[in-house]
Specification:
The protein is of the alpha/beta class. The chain is built from nine helices and ten strands. Bound molecules: the ligand O=C(O)c1ccccc1N[C@@H]1O[C@H](COP(=O)(O)O)[C@@H](O)[C@H]1O.
């Protein structure tokens, strides 16, 4: 059964629409993002600490431990750091923290990319596959081809059975409907972000309702 994450929440109105209906709620503390929020604002919005996901692009592991300590949020999504930095970080973090590493997936899986998936899987609690555009991940609004996403998921699962897998990158209701069986059999969580907006950082209530109605009917 897939869980649902809605990311890029920036205000109370949008938060109200989803709070009781999704499994994870993402708050983005990455300055280059149009969905950026400072930690002070995130701490006011993220009252449900079990659902909150703090999205970061840290310069080093210490930046993550500081921000986790400050916010008390125990799900963190990282769009930077290498496998040895993640390994070091995992040791420093409290045991209850779920470390989700974003791994960029382009249109094909090269041997180098396969190796990267394995390396990050070994040191993380969860992997979030996101579309990779010009070497970057995060809010691209573009989808990983579903067969490539499933291949990436298989590599991670074969590397570590307990790995939790998130599918992100331009996910919308249509792509969920079209690929539901594959998504359900390969991923634990589906992540929706920019596709649910009416403008950057502001969600569209009708798109949220449509998605959550489908989730209630088909997934729950
Ligand atoms: O949304 C952003 O602007 C962003 C910037 C920097 C890091 C992460 C960001 N968002 C995350 O990107 C994925 C995919 O988003 P999309 O569906 O392609 O819009 C999602 O997990 C967001 O949390």
């Amino acid at each position: 059964m897939n869980k649902i994450k809605i990311c890029g929440i920036t205000n109370r109105e949008d938060l109200k629409l989803i709070t009781d209906k999704v499994d994870y709620i993402g708050f983005i503390n990455v300055k280059r993002s149009p969905r950026y929020l400072p930690l002070t604002k995130i701490m006011k919005l993220a009252t449900d600490k079990k659902k909150a996901v703090l999205v970061l692009e840290p310069k080093n592991p210490e930046e993550v431990t500081e921000k986790v300590e400050k916010t008390n949020i125990s799900n963190i999504q990282l769009h930077s750091l290498n496998p040895s930095q993640i390994k070091k970080l995992k040791i420093q973090l409290p045991k209850n923290v779920l470390l989700i590493k974003a791994v960029g997936i382009p249109d094909t899986l090269t041997p180098k990319k396969k190796k990267e998936i394995k390396s990050f899987t070994r040191v993380s609690d969860a992997i979030l596959f996101d579309y990779e555009l010009q070497g970057k991940t995060g809010g691209t609004g573009k989808q990983i081809p579903i067969d490539i996403a499933c291949q990436a998921a298989n590599i991670a699962t074969h590397t570590k059975k307990s790995i939790k897998l998130f599918l992100a990158g331009g996910m919308n209701l249509q792509s969920l409907k079209e690929n539901y069986k594959l998504i359900d059999s390969h991923f634990d969580v589906v992540d929706f972000n920019s596709s649910l907006e009416k403008s950057p950082g502001i969600k569209d209530p009708s798109k949220i309702k449509e998605l959550l109605d489908y989730v209630d009917k088909v997934i729950r």
